[in-house]
Amino acid sequence: MLIITLLAAALQQDAPAQAPRARTIEGVADAALESPALRSSDLAAWRAHLLPGEVDMRFARIPWEPTFLDGVGRASEQGRPLLLWLMNGHPLGCT
């Protein structure tokens, strides 16, 4: 009975007179809010902009140990501090 009532209510609603406008930000022209056109000539520039550079990848040159015990052993042999990096959840926040 509930499904029939909901279906009847949905069929009685009028369609909107015009399509909803895109959200606008005050002080910004509508043309500035549109997505830029992607061209194959821009691919190299976007790739260079998005991919990590040498400075971003400095952490990869650190000789990380695969286990905590291996790291403790190496740190005690060299008399150096140990960095223990812990986190909870998915690294991209997809929990």
Please name the defining characteristics of this protein.
single chain; 95 residues; flat
What does this structure look like?
36% of the residues lie in helices and 0% in strands. It is built from 4 helices and no strands. The radius of gyration is 28 Å and the shape is flat.
In short:
By secondary structure, the chain is an all-alpha fold. The chain has four helices and no strands.
Q: Which stretches are poorly predicted, pLDDT < 50 over at least 5 residues? A: none
Secondary structure tally: strands: 0
Mean of the pLDDT scores?
A: 77
Discrete helix count? 4
Helix content: 25-40%
**Cα radius of gyration in angstroms:** 28 Å
Question: What is the topology?
Answer:
Layout: H1 2-12, H2 30-33, H3 43-50, H4 68-78
